[in-house]
Amino acid sequence: YAAKADGGRYRTYADDLDDAAGEEARLGADLRAGLDRGEFHLVYQPIVELPNGAVSAVESLVRWTHPERGNVPPDVFIPVAERNGLIVELGEWILRTACLQYADWWRQGIAPERFGVNVSARQLAEPAFPHIVAAILAETGIHPTRLVVEVTETAVFGGGAEVRTVQELNDLGISIALDDFGTGHSSLGLLQTLPVQVLKVDKSFVENVTMAGRHAVIATSLIQVANGLGLVAVAEGVETAEQAAELYRLGYRRAQGYHFGRPVPGSAHRSSSSTVTAAVDPGSSDSALRM
Ligand code: C2E
Ligand code: MG
Ligand code: MG
Ligand code: MG
Fold first, then answer.
1. What digits encode the pLDDT tens for the residues 147-187?
2. Using a 6 Å cutoff on CB, does residue 45 contact ligand 1?
3. Residue of minimum CA distance from atom 38 in ligand 1
4. Own/partner pairs for 205-210, CB < 8 Å, 24+ apart?
């Protein structure tokens, strides 16, 4: 027998599974404690008009700073919060915090036209969700048409309850954005059944838009789908001026990404009319198209 490092017995695959389950449980408990201790905050990323770069909306994104773990990315903790159900309470905190921030910008006269909040499948599965949203909007004094609820295709793929919830939110006057559009199971099919106003074209199609190839073809097709259906298309994950210029050439009029602005705390937001520096130069021939 070799030396036994782990409490006198050998590690097995079952031990690894136990560890994974243990870590999931610990992370879940830390999330619970973190919500009580105020470890979460929101950051806001601009969504701009092409080609001038004027901020038309912002998307709120949640951040978690755990005292020992440090910054844990939402891609890591949101799925855990969905599995242990905490997303319902966390999501309500996120929505109220974003609404309070938007109301504050409004009072300062610097509110963008709209603000987006990400909502997960588990929240949409709650039949009371539209009532909760309506109550938070009323309590913070925000008109429902200012809010954009961002849902992923997978969140509504289950059908039934989630689709009904989306319908009810839309009936309240809230806009619906399909997030990471094009990466789900039934992207185009969903457009037939779901009330949607905004398509957020996934960054995987934006990444290689300047190169000839399948991504550029898909980015081109998706703007045609959006325009044909009268939807607003937002290109996600725009990192370079070249991508922005090409997207504009393809017909995109809304974009989001590090090229225009990283997610920042609400206090760093300046004005809806402030033009970000990284706008697209449309070239002289296109200048009549300036918005
Ligand atoms: P998402 O809703 O698609 O958000 C866009 C993500 O892309 C954000 O990551 C954002 O920081 C990142 N991003 C923005 N511009 C660029 C760019 O130019 N390049 C690259 N590479 N990335 C860019 P983040 O904040 O880490 O969030 C990841 C995902 O976690 C979100 O994807 C969303 O699905 C989820 N999430 C974030 N905040 C919330 C929330 O408040 N509630 C819920 N339910 N989910 C959230
Ligand atoms: Mg989003
Ligand atoms: Mg997205
Ligand atoms: Mg995403």
1. 999 999 888 777 788 999 999 999 999 999 999 998 887 77
2. yes
3. 61
4. 206/235, 206/236, 206/237, 206/238, 206/243, 206/247, 206/257, 207/237, 207/239, 207/243, 209/235, 209/243, 209/246, 209/247, 209/250, 210/240, 210/242, 210/243, 210/246
Contact (Cβ atoms closer than 8 angstroms) between residue 254 and residue 234: yes
259 CB-near residues (< 8 Å, 6+ apart): 238, 239, 240, 241, 243, 244, 278
Give ipTM to 2 decimals. 0.98
Q: Which of 160, 177, 172, 173 is nearest to 116 (CA)?
A: 177
Ion ligand 2: residues, CB < 5 A: 118, 150, 179
The response to whether residue 78 sits with its C-beta less than 6 Å from ligand 1 reads yes
For ligand 1, is residue 239 a contact (CB within 6 Å)? yes
Distance in angstroms (rounded) separating the CA atoms of residues 227 and 165: 26
Q: How far is the CA of 61 from the centre of ligand 1 (A)?
A: 6
278 CA from centroid of ligand 4 (Å)? 23
pTM (2 decimals)?
0.91
d(CA 51, CA 244): 8
Query: 264-265 and 147-152 as β-strands: parallel, antiparallel, unpaired?
Result: unpaired
Closest-CA residue, ligand 1 atom 21, reads 237
Q: Determine the Cα–Cα distance for residues 198 and 58; give it in Å rounded to an integer.
A: 14
Cα 118 from chain centroid (whole Å): 5
